[in-house]
Sequence to fold (294 residues):
Amino acid sequence: MAAQIIDGKAIAAKFREKIAEDVAALRKETGVTPHLAAVLVGDDPASAVYVRNKQRACEKAGIQSTLHRLPGMTSQEELLTLVGRLNEDSGVHGILVQLPLPDQIDEKAVLDAVLPMKDVDCFHPENVGRLMQGRPRFLPCTPCGIQQLLLETGVEISGAHCVILGRSEIVGKPMAAMLMQKAPGANATVTVCHSRTRDLESIARTADILVAAIGVPRFVKASMVRPGAVVIDVGINRVDGKLVGDVDFDAVREVASAITPVPGGVGPMTIAMLLRNTVTAATLSATKTGDTSR
Ligand SMILES: NC(=O)c1ccc[n+]([C@@H]2O[C@H](COP(=O)([O-])OP(=O)(O)OC[C@H]3O[C@@H](n4cnc5c(N)ncnc54)[C@H](OP(=O)(O)O)[C@@H]3O)[C@@H](O)[C@H]2O)c1
Fold:
């Protein structure tokens, strides 16, 4: 039987409705409107589309968004100056620096410069450390979106073997950190594979939940998926002008029990979680509660 298609677009729409309600409530209670400042350096068309989509989603949820566009030749110092200004601006609650940055700029230095309280992408070492220790301030957008997709689909995460393909700072590593937590919505047994992994195919076949985040079009074949597994495709690859994921969707959907499409799976959830983090940042700022230890 063909797999259930996990409709990320519909699930994200539900989250965005709730976020819009939270924004309205925060404004009513405190007079504060959440404000996301996006920084885009250069004119990479894909990055421009991502930022535009994020801004549109902000507007629909009642979140203010401002775009700071800098030329591709911008120096690291100039970018750091802008980040410093946004850090100091009490009217800005979240800062998003769209990646990738041009070669002359040290990405880590810039992400480290974002104030942890405004780090809605959850890239700052302080926020990553908190996540690792199970007391997050913000949850990283893509992994959090994936976790919510699994929960909304009724997938049992606790005790499941979750195999993550890819160990990037944006997806693979934080995804592993989240799913291995001793916490509700987690408690998985996690294996992370990467380009040096020996016999990746056999490991992938042991997964109850397989998350593919490697950036190689249609890498995951049906032979790599255990019948009945849940497959989450994070990949966004452009092939012959079409968007395809890291999973060979047509073949894998015949083996898996549930699968996310590309587009319309993980992508919309990433944006919804960014909005949620921006509201969290504005709430923390309005209520002066920086520490959200649990
Ligand atoms: N839907 C969304 O919202 C969203 C968000 C973020 C990213 N993405 C997409 O997700 C994909 C991954 O993004 P990313 O930023 O995590 O990528 P990345 O930083 O390029 O990392 C890719 C990871 O995959 C591993 N890898 C690459 N080729 C491999 C192979 N043949 N076999 C095994 N492992 C391999 C790499 O291993 P090494 O570490 O050994 O090099 C690395 O850990 C991309 O298509 C990206 O566009 C989507």
Remarks:
- Residues 142, 165-168, 170-172, 193-196, 200, 213-216, 234-237, 266-267, 270 surround NAP (CB under 6 Å).
- The chain is about 40% helix and 15% strand.
